[in-house]
Amino acid sequence: MTNDTLPAAAVSLDRSPGPQTHPTPLRPPSARRAPALIRAVSVAGRGLLILGGLVVAFLVFQLWGTGFHEQRAQRDLAAELDRAIGARQAPAGPEGGEAILGPVAQGPGPDAGLAPGPGSVAGAATVPARTPPQSAEPVARITAPTIGLDKIVVEGVGRSQLREGPGHYPVTPLPGHAGNVAIAGHRTTHGAPFADIDQLEPGDPIVLDTVDGRFVYRVEAYTHPVEGTVSGHQVVAPGDADAIAATGDNRLTLTTCHPRYSDRQRLVVTATLEGGPVAFAQPLPGAPPSPARPDASVDTADAADPAAVVPSVGPSGPAQEPFGWHWSELDEVLLWAALTTVCAAPAVVINRRGKGHKFVLLALSVPALPLLLMFVHLDILLPTG
């Protein structure tokens, strides 16, 4: 006989019908804190991903996006300078003074297009006086065939002027005129016009074509005082204004940031003018006096020789340090950053509600414009070179 009964210990004392209820075991405190910690880490990770994406986008804007603005500005400036040169070189008539002649220097070789012109190796040119250029106006085309440099130089070295091309220091003489002509330019952003001026060698030509004619400068040799090496450039401290100060001779000085992607120092290239500087024709009897640059001080001993007049340079001031921080743009940066955040909020809400990637991408296109404007002002704020 088999025993089909269960042991007494296995018999349930709960005889009530329906599902059995059991008390829920208590989770330890570490288990309760885990979800909150995971959410915090997830939010922080997403924030870092967004911040990293913005940094990459800004770097792309600086290195390539600013170049598009510079290229468009250079096209307009080149057309404006060509019109000014054409009008200046037109025959002036029996009482209008001497016409300015000489083609624009072009060509692939190191000395291509360097035929003697007014102010070049042929000697000084005599030209009618003209009014000084206004801020951001084109003053010259600068070409250095050995490094492929071909840019339009604008008047002024402020941040807005250097965004369009190399800038002429207003406190120095105009290209081809007597004295130390100084020009600054970016090395990494905004088209990087002076990216390769450290590759210029002694004797390389630098040509400046202006409404007053063509002027050829030859790069000077610089010997390092410690290493003894000879090159076509030198490195100076950012506050060293001697490079653009009056030197008593006729030269060209190019300045840019050094090293690349930094404004810690300045790289300077100097070149000597071949031939004499431009001279101004004597005004006709009864004509008004020739306009003078507001920063030029004329030595009375040299007043009879216009070619010998050298402006005295006041090297201090913001015009001599165009590459530093520009804190006045901070308010604009914060304003457009706040507007970008507000415009991006709908994309966050749509993503949390699971409306789909298409709606998220559409919502993210809304803050694109304020984000671009924030990048523009941030680029002006930072000490880019």
Account of the 3D structure:
By secondary structure, this protein is an alpha+beta fold. The protein folds into two domains: 61-282 and 294-320, Beta Barrel (Sortase, Chain: A), CATH 2.40.260; 327-381. It has helices at residues 29-89, 159-162, 330-352, 357-364, 368-381, and strands at residues 126-127, 138-144, 149-155, 167-168, 180-184, 205-210, 213-219, 222-223, 230-231, 234-236, 251-258, 265-273, 279-280. An eight-stranded mixed β-barrel has the order 2-3-4-5-11-12-7-6. The chain has a two-stranded parallel sheet with strand order 1-13. Strands 8-9 form a two-stranded antiparallel ribbon. Helix 3 (330-352) packs antiparallel against helix 4 and helix 3 runs antiparallel to helix 5 (368-381). The longest helix is centred in the first third of the chain and has 61 residues, at 29-89. It is elongated, with a radius of gyration of 34 Å. Mean pLDDT is 74; it is low at 92-110, 116-123 and 284-320.
Briefly, what is this?
With 385 residues, the protein is α+β, with helices and mostly antiparallel strands. It folds into two domains: 61-282 and 294-320, Sortase (Sortase, Chain: A, Beta Barrel); 327-381.
For the terminal residues, how far apart are their CA atoms? Answer: 103 Å
Q: Say which CATH homologous superfamily of the largest domain is assigned.
A: Sortase
Physical arrangement of strands within the biggest beta sheet: 2-3-4-5-11-12-7-6
- How would you sum up the major sheet? 8 strands, mixed, barrel
User: What is the CATH C-level name of the largest domain?
Assistant: Mainly Beta
Instruction: Indicate the CATH architecture of the largest domain.
Output: Beta Barrel
Total count of strands:
13
Poorly predicted regions: 92-110, 116-123, 284-320
Q: What is the overall number of helices? A: 5
Helical content (DSSP H or I, runs of 4+): 25-40%
Domains, number: 2
The H-and-E topology, N to C, reads as HEEEHEEEEEEEEEEHHH
